[in-house]
Amino acid sequence: MHLIETRNLSHVYRGNVAALSGVNFVAERASRIAVIGANGAGKSTLFKHFNGLLKPASGEVLIRGEPITKENLREIRKIVGIVFQNPDDQIFSPTVEQDVAFGPMNLGLDDETVAHRVDAALALLDIEHLRERVPHHLSGGEKKRVAIAGVIAMEPQVLVLDEPTAGLDPQGVASLVEFVNTLPQKYGMTVIFSTHHVELVPEVADYIYVMDQGKIAAKGSIDDIFARQELLVRTRLEVPTIPRLIATLRDNGIDVDMAYTFDGAKRSLLDAYARRA
Q1: Span 104-121, average pLDDT
Q2: What residues does each domain of the chain span?
């Protein structure tokens, strides 16, 4: 039984605009999954089906083997938490503390449990110092952390992040990567995120779905996807700098192992240098 599964999922917006077509997607427990694709590929629409924000035109969405219904929608939203691209879409309370408490309160938890969850989420996101601040006076990166904390406080099994690095500076991106990577190992949480910035993917994903025009164009491991540079070009995505550099070195006769991250490239180049010495 998969944690999340879609079967031949399709969605049509008003005006007969097909946003998803025959999407088959699977997420397992404690996994890190990237959904990559150009703007308009259908990533956000897919995510909104994971906790019942949208209903399929055809096909189905299963959470822990059960289809989403009106009767289990509240339970589904305890399992799957979504953080939207624009944090202003989720932040509306007078203070950060109240905003983070909103989700747990709506789960019907007692005051003591709510307070504990809020404290834990603020600590995890390192925003305890923002507790009494007005959310809309915060920076973009701080708002994003507050939005994530509000979802984390509900203790979902799946955290879905829609374009999480949008609007973040390099330090904010690095901090987000570090945070995301703790969730599967330390908390057993599945993380699913979308991006059209493929340079980030090898740092935070074990498995990739490539979307194009509402369909799954490819799926596989980091090696499977990034070895297919023609696929990335065809789906209007940038080929990451590091594997592109390694491929160029190999084309020029340098015996170097493929790599996708800075640390991996460093090891590969040092190993290649040692073999030539």
Answers
A1: 94
A2: 4-239
